[in-house]
Every structure is written in structure tokens, then in C-alpha cells.
Design a protein that fits this description.
Layout: H1 19-48, H2 54-71, H3 78-102, E1 115-119, E2 126-128, E3 133-137, H4 138-141, H5 147-162, H6 165-184, H7 188-192, H8 198-202, H9 208-226, H10 230-244, H11 257-273, H12 287-305
Parallel strand pairs: 1-3
Antiparallel strand pairs: 2-3
Helix pairs in contact: 1-6, 3-5, 3-12, 5-9, 5-10, 9-11, 10-11
Length: 306
């Protein structure tokens, strides 16, 4: 038998398909799989967040809360710093007392603790983070027309804690960072870096649905506490005014202008559906608190000049 070397056909190792098209198909498939995986894992994390011990949240949050508060203390002289801390403590105690009055009406789990922090800064913001820590900024307090609006604000932030939104947000952030690191080949340090700064912990973002869920809880609390929902409208109208100014400092409570209007409309819808009064007597913030806020504003302005 005579051996002959057959001729290899032309183009056997090539394709008629455009290589860019093949790349696009493969890339689309890969990203679709990643998206579906992230979505499914996110849903699992949402479901499982209620089983994360609240004590674990508190342990994670403690060092970052201290660091965050220090960021706003400034490089004051000892005398000024002592005066500022005394003022801040008085406002924090007032906020804490008010929160302690409303939380029994919100059906929190027994191990959940709510801790209020007052921040002497002109930022128009209020926010909830891990471990039941809630930060209220002077800039927002100064704009509130009544204690009713403040109760709505506090109830909104407490609702975030009750519904475990901070830990859900953090879990998803870690998940997305992990998936991005796997795809891009980054190191583990990039993933763990999500907890490396106070900005990641303190300014956890909440979804539109989470904000509305917190609103729903707070609107009900406002009615149960005052027998009307006027405070809810007052707070949201303050936020509407700030959203029109495009105030980027109001990170947590503010979103786009249309969304704030939707939240205002939700107050009306819920009130009508439950036959709740939308107007009633309002209680002003205590004069002492307004005086303390004014003192803090002057102290901060003087510090800025120095």
C-alpha cells in the first residue's frame, strides 16, 4: 500500500463569520449570565438578610460611625470643641428622646437598637446606616417647619433599619464588587475595599422601592402618633424644594424631582385609602433646639473663617 500525503483543504481553520460578531455574541452571553447570577444572588441576599444577627451589624458599624463623626468635628480648638460637643450632645439627646417615643409604635425586632447622631453641618440630609445608627444634619433640621416633620423624618430612617435596608445594600455592594473583580481580574483587596472608608458605609444607597417602603412605614407612624399626616407632607415639601435646587449634598433622602412628587402623591393616596386626616395641629421644634442649631451654625461659620 502506497502512502500519499493528502492536501489539506483551504480555510479549514477559519470561519466565514466576522470575528467581531463572534466576540459580540460571546460577550453578550457572558454578561447575560453574570447579570442573571447577580440578580439571583441579590434576591437570595435580600431574603437572607433578616437572618443576619443585628449584633453583627452593630459590630461592623461601630468603628466607622466613630470615624464618620470625627470627620465632622473639624480641627477646633479645645475650648470650641468642648462647646460644640456639649451642644451636639443636647441636640442628639432631643433626637434620641423623640426616636424612643416613636419606635414602640413601629414594631421593631427586640434586638434592634436605634441610636441618633446629630451632625453640625449645613448638608441637607438624614441617613440610616448599619447597626441602627441614624445621622441627622443641622442643614435639614434648620429647614423643618415643625416637630411633626421631624417625626416623619426619624420614622423614615428607623423604617430603613427595621426593614434591614442598610445590610441589604451593603451585601449587594460587596456582591457586585466581587463579581466585577472576578470579571476584571482585580485583587481581593479591591473587593474588601468597599468597607475601607466611611463614605461606603455611611452613604449606603437605597433603591426607589426601598425609599417608598420606608415612606409607607413613616406615613403610618405619623398618623398613629399625631392622628394626621401633615408632618409627612411638610417633610416631603422641604425635600421637594431642595431637589429643585439640585442640592447634591442631600444624598439619601433626595432623588430626582419627579420622584419626590410621587412620594408626596403617595401620602395623599395612603391617607385617602385609610381615611386618615391630612391636616391637623402641628408642634414647633423646641426653642432651645432652634437656639442650639443657631449657635452651631455660627460656630461652624467662624471655624470656616479661621
Amino acid at each position: 500500500m502506497k502512502y500519499s500525503n493528502p492536501k489539506i483543504p483551504e480555510g479549514i481553520n477559519s470561519t466565514t463569520e466576522n470575528p467581531l460578531k463572534e466576540f459580540f455574541v460571546l460577550a453578550t452571553g457572558a454578561f447575560t449570565c453574570i447579570f442573571v447570577l447577580v440578580f439571583l444572588l441579590g434576591a437570595i441576599l435580600d431574603w437572607g438578610s433578616k437572618y443576619i444577627p443585628f449584633s453583627y451589624e452593630m459590630a461592623i458599624a461601630k468603628p466607622f460611625v466613630l470615624e464618620f463623626k470625627e470627620e465632622y468635628s473639624g480641627d477646633l480648638t479645645n475650648d470650641n470643641k468642648t462647646e460644640l460637643i456639649t451642644t451636639a450632645e443636647k441636640v442628639s439627646l432631643y433626637l434620641q428622646r423623640l426616636a424612643d417615643e416613636i419606635t414602640p409604635l413601629m414594631a421593631l425586632e427586640e434586638d434592634v437598637e436605634i441610636t441618633l447622631h446629630y451632625i453640625n453641618d449645613e448638608t441637607v440630609n438624614g441617613m440610616a446606616t448599619l447597626g441602627g445608627h441614624i445621622f441627622i444634619f443641622r442643614g435639614l433640621l434648620e429647614k423643618l417647619p415643625s416637630e411633626n416633620a421631624l417625626v416623619m423624618l426619624l420614622a423614615h430612617e428607623v423604617a430603613h433599619v427595621k426593614l434591614r435596608h442598610p445590610v441589604k445594600s451593603l451585601s449587594k455592594g460587596v456582591l457586585i464588587s466581587l463579581m466585577f473583580a472576578i470579571v476584571s481580574g482585580q485583587s481581593n483587596s479591591d473587593v474588601t475595599g468597599i468597607l475601607a472608608g466611611t463614605s461606603q458605609l455611611a452613604f449606603l444607597g437605597f433603591s426607589r422601592s426601598q425609599e417608598q417602603d420606608a415612606d409607607n412605614e413613616a406615613i403610618k407612624l405619623s398618623h398613629d402618633y399625631y392622628q394626621h399626616t401633615q408632618g409627612a407632607n411638610e417633610l416631603l415639601n422641604v425635600l421637594l424644594g431642595e431637589s429643585k435646587k439640585s442640592n447634591v449634598g442631600a444624598v439619601t433622602l433626595l432623588s430626582t424631582h419627579p420622584e419626590v412628587i410621587e412620594r408626596i402623591n403617595k401620602v395623599k393616596t395612603l391617607s385617602q385609602a385609610n381615611d386618615w386626616r391630612q391636616q391637623g395641629d402641628v408642634k414647633l421644634l423646641p426653642k432651645e433646639v432652634n437656639t442650639l442649631l443657631a449657635q452651631d451654625k455660627v460656630a461652624q461659620e467662624l471655624q470656616a473663617v479661621e
